[in-house]
């Protein structure tokens, strides 16, 4: 499957967004004192990283 230029740009934008979200969630978790919230933030950061990796697999197919 070939992606056109617009699709590639959108994919890169989504990948960057997921990376930004993961970094922000990690920073929030590092500054939080409630263990339950820390765990939730870390889980969400990992989910964002997993989504980023899934999106990157589309780039690797190009």
UniProtKB/TrEMBL annotation:
UniProt protein name: Spore coat protein
Upper classification of the organism: Bacteria, Bacillati, Bacillota, Bacilli, Bacillales
